[in-house]
Amino acid sequence: MMSHCLLFSGRESSQARNAPRVDKLLKLADSDSVGQTPFLAAANARRDAVTELLRELVHTPSLSTDERDVVHRLAAQMEDLGYDEVVLDPLGSVIGRIGNGPVTIVMDAHVDTVGVGSRDEWSHDPFEPVLADGVVYGRGACDDKGGMASMVFGAALARELGVLPEAVTLYVVGSVQEEECDGLALEHVLTKVLGRPDVVLLGESTNGKVFRGNRGRIEVLVRTRGSSCHASAPDLGHNPVYDLAGIITDVEALNGRLGYDEFLGAGTVALTKIECETPSLNAVPGSATIYLDRRLTLGEDPDAALKEIAALASVQAVGGTVELLRYERNSFTGTALVQDKAFGTWVTPEAAAPVRAGLATVERALGRPAPATGHWVFSTNGVASMGKLGIPTVGFGPGDERYAHTVAEQCPVADLVDAMAFYAAFPAEFVASRPEPAEAS
Fold it and tell me: Is-contact 219 212, C-beta < 8 A?
């Protein structure tokens, strides 16, 4: 049961609480009606409703720390769909519960988005979602509001179809501030509110595949210090920006010799920002800073990666300092959040029960052969659930991650339907995939 939450609503559903046995649930998914599975047929009947919800979510701006309106919209939708309980936690994440069994499943999608950048690069207003040729366009469409919309309806669909096992408690979480600090809000939900679940299912875009990992990362600054003086006589000072030249060259070279993993791929490092501190445009700066995004593949450690940057010959030669960035912001509820920006690499083994359940769900609920498992190129809340807490984590979500954070961000409506069907069927498949408890001797 949820604890330490701000109660948003707590209406008990009038729908039946009992569900069929798992063996009967699987037979339902095997039946074929007019060329599609019962899950897809039921999800297709909600195509317009889930599309409209996604468009409303896109229309509601929700930058990190400013998610209040979208969270309340989601809470109202969960209430309308008959969730047993809907609450906001102290950080502002919305949590909906269906069922009350001993097996706990958490489905999570973050509700915040990145900014829009230059409006001139967009072909339309990023917050006025366009529906064209079966695709929803707009900021957050695939990252991660498409997953959120499908989860809200998919979880309710599991109960409506009578396929949610009696043994399951299903939580749907709309987590906040993921874009600024991956995993921070979900970790709070899993450790301070719900307690440890049996599995976490993420709704980030997977392009029809079951994903089971992502690279970790650290955010780092490298700073050089000089001696400021009037720009008319630069020889009287020391310009720290010039010291960055060699460091930038070394960072670019470092990117080509980082570790490699057969599943997750190579570690990377990218320069993302340059700035300097100067009294005026007619003065030599007193300090200069670059910011680095260092992605960590399996076998790479955050501490070791930080030391590797600090050990670069160019950094040593100019006495540069290297620091791990720290996240410090208040959530929209006013709660202060602080965390070092170091996020661990994670992979859920392919043979693990949640992965097998995910692949079986693709086959039974979507009626197609399950493709090979994959991984996200970007980072997700899995850095907390699996990377930090060791909770088995998998993902399935509508859309393609290559459109995330771009001016072409989009989500096909057909993907929303598939995701709804997947989320409705996954709980029963997960229960069926779990090993039988050992008999007492």
Answer: no
Give the mean pLDDT of the chain: 93
Per-residue pLDDT averaged across 260-265, rounded? 97
- Rama region for 140: left / alpha / beta (φ>0; ψ in -120 to 50; rest): left
Compute the distance between CA of residue 241 and CA of residue 224 in angstroms, rounded to an integer: 7
What pLDDT was estimated at residue 437? 59
Per-residue pLDDT at 5: 57
Domain spanning 216-330: which CATH class is it, in words?
A: alpha beta
Q: Which two tokens stand for residue 182?
A: 């991956």
| Distance between CA atoms of residues 216 and 268, nearest Å | 10
* Annotated active-site residue in 178, 182, 415, 418: 178
**In this predicted structure, what is the pLDDT of residue 438?**
46
Specify the CATH class of 6-214+345-433 in words. alpha beta
In angstroms and rounded to an integer, the radius of gyration of the C-alpha atoms of the chain is 24
State yes or no: is 112 an active-site residue.
Answer: yes
**Tokens coding 148:** 């959120």
Q: Which residues contact 1 (CB under 8 A, 6 or more apart)?
A: 100
Rounded CA-CA distance 25/262 in Å is 37
Question: Which one from 84, 85, 89, 112 is the annotated catalytic residue?
Answer: 112
Separation of alpha carbons 147 and 202, rounded Å: 8
Domain spans of the chain, in order of start: 6-214+345-433, 216-330
pLDDT digits (tens, 9 = 90+) for 16-35: 333 344 454 455 545 444 56
Rounded to whole angstroms, the Cα distance separating 277 from 289 reads: 9
Six-digit token pair at 147?
A: 């997953």
How far apart are alpha carbons 174 and 397 in whole angstroms?
14
For residue 261, give the H/E element and its range: strand 260-261
Is residue 89 annotated as part of the catalytic site, yes or no?
no
